Each structure stands twice: as structure tokens, then as C-alpha cells.
Amino acid sequence: MKNNIYCSLDEAREEIRKRFENKELKKKVEDYLSNNFIPGLSADEPKAVFAKSVVSPSWGYDFFCVGAKYLGLNPLLAEYTDDLFTGLSEDKLLLSRLSILWNDGTKKKVDIVNYKEYHAKQIPEVRVFSGERLIDFHHNLFKLSQYPASKITDMSKYFKSYGRPKDYYPYYLANFICHGVLFEKFETNPKTHEYKFTKEVAVPVIDFLEEKFGFKPIIVKLYPDNQSKDEDFSLGCYNKNINDFLIDYVSKNNCVIKEF
């Protein structure tokens, strides 16, 4: 499988400017997309896009904010909240099994959700041990973050209108030919559950778009591949303000603490 899915930040900064000013390319993409721009993205200005089932201000979001600023693009936070909850997805697992640095320097993994109760249910139904919805729990963490509040756009209706990922992904990724930069990581480890999606959906769509428009979507890798155990732990970490809140939250709500 090809590994040339991604652009560096420098490449993305150069490419988005050149392509957005390419009137012929823009028209071709806009004719193809028609009414299929993702909510919040348009022909008026390119944006940096951070798309998750539920957006949370973790390490990945920190990188996105810095990256968007480096690119000189306004951020667009997008969610697919009508997706199903499962621990088989790394992104969804990070929403429910948090990485927390204890005051004594030790690292803990903390489950804030009962997996057996909510597996395969829609995300809006999932509640953390305190009774709060999982979506609201993560959105409320933004109040503790050090970044300005940004509007979060729910793209559930957009995705569900197409049905299967194979049906909507060509349109979805076409948004990033010249109208936006996507911050994302596609799983390339064959041993993981999500590798099948990369191989059977993402890569073929990227190849199709490159053949159709002469350009691949502009995608910046959100997380590195082949991480060590410590690097993997860091994916779920939060800044100090949020981390301190989580330590207190865990002790008050009988969350399941696991040794790292």
C-alpha cells in the first residue's frame, strides 16, 4: 500500500495557496462537489479541518491548533456524533480511556465509560460514570483548555445522507483538493482493526481523486506511525489545566483506573 498519503506542514501551506488560486482547478472541483461541500467549508476561503467522532482538546487537538496557525488557515472542528461507539476504534477508545499523569509522576489509563453497556450504541447515548453524556464531557473540557473556543460543526447528517463510507468518501476527500487541509491519520498497521478502511476505502479514493483532478487531497498526518508505548500514551494526554481537573474527576466518580 502507498505511504504517500500525507503532506508536510510546509508542503500543505504552499499547496493550499497555489491550488485555491487555481481557478480552473477550483471550478472543476466545485462542479464535482456541487452541493456536497462539508458543512462549514465553502469556496470563499480554505480552512484547516479537524474531524472526529467527538472533538476533544487532547494532544492531537493541540497539534491541530498549532498547525492551522502555521498554515494561516481558520480552523473547522467537525464531528460525526451519530456514529457507533466501539473500543475497536483508536479514536473512540481515546475518548473513553483517558491517559492521565498523576501528581507523583506515574501514568494511568482511566476508563470513564462502561464499554459492555454501550458497545455498538450511538455515541449520543453513551454516558460517562458521572451520568454526563460522553459528548458533553469532552466539549466541557474546552472550557479548561488554553485555546480560544471554536464552533463545533456536527456532520452526521452529511455523512448519513450518503450511507456507506465508500459512497461519501470521494466527495468528503474532494473537499481537500483545494478548499481545505485535513488533519488526519489513516491506520497503516495491518494488525489493527482500522487498517481495512485505509486499504479498501481511503487509499482507493485518494488514487481516484488524484487521477480525476491531477492532485491528491491535502492531508497532514495527525499522529506518527509505529509509536512506542510511551508515545501511544501521549495521544490521550491533555494540558495541565485539564489533566488536573481529570485527576479530581476520577477520584469523585469511581472511574476505573488501570496501571500503564
Structural description of this entry:
With 260 residues, the protein is of the alpha/beta class. It has one domain. The protein has helices at residues 9-20, 23-33, 59-71, 90-96, 115-118, 134-141, 156-160, 165-174, 195-213, 229-234, 240-252; strands spanning 47-52, 74-79, 97-101, 107-111, 152-154, 180-184, 219-221, 256-259. The strands form two sheets. It has a five-stranded parallel β-sheet with strand order 5-2-1-6-7. It has a three-stranded antiparallel β-sheet with strand order 3-4-8. The longest helix has 19 residues, at 195-213. The relative contact order is 0.20.
Labels describing this entry:
alpha/beta; 260 residues
Helix-strand topology string: HHEHEHEEHHEHHEHEHHE
Total number of β-strand segments? 8
Described by the principal axes of the CA atoms, the overall outline is globular
Q: Please summarize the sheet with the most strands.
A: 5 strands, parallel
Give the rounded overall mean pLDDT.
Answer: 90
Fraction in beta strands: 5-15%
Helix fraction, binned, reads 40-55%
Tally of contiguous helical segments: 11
**pLDDT under 50 segments (min length 5)?**
none
Structurally, the number of domains stands at: 1
Output the radius of gyration.
Answer: 19 Å
Task: Give the strand line-up of the largest sheet.
Answer: 5-2-1-6-7
Cα distance spanning the termini = 33 Å
The SS-based structural class is: alpha/beta
